[in-house]
């Protein structure tokens, strides 16, 4: 395709290939600059996974950028339930930063 993240064309290509609209898509990534911001700029909801290249102690400002924050994929089902408008009882191991910010254990 000839492009690399954060080029929006990569995200647009993925949406076309999947045959889904951006507003019906959730993107999970570990970097704000190359994952979260480009996905959100196209209208996707973005979940920041605090693994890999994510900072070990993100600031409140950083935590406010994505639609949700998780530290493990085990937190993703809870986030998807919230995005779908359902409010499940969070497991005791999941920490809620705000109404949309969720963090599961590492």
Fold blueprint:
Layout: H1 8-18, E1 26-29, H2 32-41, E2 45-49, H3 60-64, E3 68-70, H4 76-83, E4 95-96, E5 102-103
Parallel strand pairs: 1-2, 2-3
Antiparallel strand pairs: 4-5
What does this protein structure show overall?
This protein is α/β, with parallel strands linked by helices and 106 residues long. The chain has a single domain (8-103), classed as HAD superfamily/HAD-like (Rossmann fold, 3-Layer(aba) Sandwich), CATH 3.40.50. The protein has four helices and five strands. Strands 1-2-3 form a three-stranded parallel beta sheet, with helices on both faces. The protein has a two-stranded antiparallel sheet with strand order 4-5. It starts with 7 loop residues before the first helix and ends with a strand. 25% of the residues are buried.
